[in-house]
Model the fold of this input.
Amino acid sequence: MVVPFNGILNLLSYLRRKNFNLGIVTSLPSIYAIKEIKAANLGPFRCLVCYHDTSLHKPYPQPIIKALEKLDSNPNHTIYIGDQLADILAGKAANVKTGIVLWGVLSKNWDLLLKAKPMFVFYEVNDILNSLF
Done:
């Protein structure tokens, strides 16, 4: 059973009310991604880019570039937030702002993630709101 981290549903609701252009880029095949999004009640999103949507995958920038195209978003006004090293590398290669979440990640991975120098580091969900506004 997929359960969102505490505060995520409120964060998404707030961002939608503020008309943020939200999308998901995942390494999951679409059939699993859609099931997980529905199970966690995370949707709707304006765009979903999954494993089979690009020939190159994170850490390459192609999945994020595809999402930017689908969302008609400017990379200069975009932040890509993830929880893996590949997320930071892909975001940087796509020339978007990068953010890393450190909740849910084993603490032994923190050093590696921080060495990649994401623009934002989020220790808890509220840190995202504080950084965006």
